[in-house]
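Readers of this paper often ask what the protein records in our data store actually look like. The remainder of this section carries one protein's record, kept here as part of the documentation.

:::
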Amino acid sequence: MPEDAARPRPWLVLAICCMSMLIVSLDNTILNIALPAIQRDLHTSVSGLQWTVDAYTLVLAALLMLSGSTADRVGRRRTLRAGLAIFTAASLLCGLAPGLGWLVAARILQAVGGSMLNPVAMSIISNTFTDPRQRARAIGVWSGVVGISMAAGPIIGGALVESAGWRSIFWINVPIGLAALFLIGRYVPESRAARPRRVDPVGQALVIVLLLTLTYAIIESPSRGWTSPVVAGSAAAALCA
């Protein structure tokens, strides 16, 4: 570990964590502005557009618990860097996607990386700020950055789509992600939980089944109908999960 990282600077660590989460928060809202352009360019249906949004949200939500517990065991800094590297590479692939299927697959990969950022960055902040008053202030700053970035997503997305096309909303993540990777490696110290949570593969699998089947039933029911065996079976599987 670099010597600078051995002497953590709390507010610099907070800024780096906010930087890594900035692109994830932006990605939640910036895509909505680009959907009409994506539909025209890739000649996709409304349900296809829904999957470009929901595939990301679904995988992100399903893997949050697993990513948090993994970071507690193998190291938060290591997990944060891995997640950011995956998210950055997937953003590049999203911008290069030749068709809807490739775009959805790249969005799923984006979500895998994004799931490692939110809970892990928050754990790093909590571990860095040991004083309760400073920790509360740091979490307030963190929440403010997330809120502002989500609100700014449509504005930034509109400007990018208008000036450089819909693919630019993904390419903008690449330089930010690379800069954050460098800063994490230099200034963020490694940490682990004193008593890491045990692995819960059954619970993780049930969360994935629940979110996947419920989302599929909701998206496909307008075209297939609720009486469709596939839609009804997905709803039943979600209920059981």
About this structure: Residues 200-241 form one domain.
